[in-house]
Design brief:
Elements: H1 3-22, H2 27-46, H3 56-79
Length: 80
């Protein structure tokens, strides 16, 4: 894992884990969502030139929040 990714993990994962836990998720689900968010971030930064309009932390957290909401809705649909 690169140093930049490690630093993002240390700074953002605890907040993502709290967010997911407060919304009924497990630590394993928080890890999955966070890793998916890091993949999205990595793909964005490696593609065409892209201007980040917020901090890296805010972007990754926002993606993780979106992914968790999507997963939660899908789980609710399957539970019905």
């Amino acid at each position: 894992m690169s140093t930049a990714i490690t630093m993002l993990y240390q700074r953002i994962f605890p907040a993502v884990a709290r967010y997911v836990a407060k919304r009924g998720g497990t630590m394993e689900e928080a890890k999955d969502v966070f890793h998916d968010a890091l993949v999205v971030y990595h793909e964005k930064t490696q593609g065409e030139p892209w201007i980040l309009t917020s901090s890296e932390e805010a972007y990754v957290f926002g993606v993780a929040r979106h992914l968790w909401s999507k997963r939660y809705r899908e789980n609710q649909h399957h539970a019905s």
